[in-house]
Amino acid sequence: MSRYDLTRIPAVKTLVVNRWPQFILRAIALAGFVVAILAGLFGTPVGSRNLSIVFVWIAWWALLILAAVPLFGRGWCTVCPIPMAGEWLQNGAVLGPRKKETGDWRLVTGNLQSPIPSLRLRQWPKRFRNIWLQNGGFALLALFSAVVLTQPKVTAVILAIFLFLAVGTALIYERRAFCRYLCPVGGFIGLYSQVAPLEVRVRDMAICASHTEKTCYTGNADGYGCPWGVFPGGLVKNTTCGACMECLRTCPHDNIAIQIRPVGADLTVARGRKLDEAFKAFIMLGSAVVYSAVMLGPWGWLKTTAYNVGSLAWLGYALAFLLFILGLLPGIFYLVTWAGMGQRVNLRVVRQRFTANAYALVPLGLAAWIAFSLSFVFANISYLWPVLSDPFGWGWDLLGTAVTPWTPYLSRIVPILQTLVLVGGLAWAAVTARKIAEEKRGGTALPAIAYCFFITVGMLWLLIG
Amino acid sequence: MNVETAVLPQKRFTIKHGSWLVLSLLALAVVFAPLPTGTAVPTTHTLHLEASSFAFSPAILEVNPGDLVTIELTSTDVVHGLYLDGYDLVVTADPGETAILTFTADKSGTFRFRCSVTCGALHPFMIGKLKVGPNLLLWRGIALSVLAALIGLWRFRQ
Question: What ipTM was reported for this prediction?
Answer without folding.
Answer: 0.91
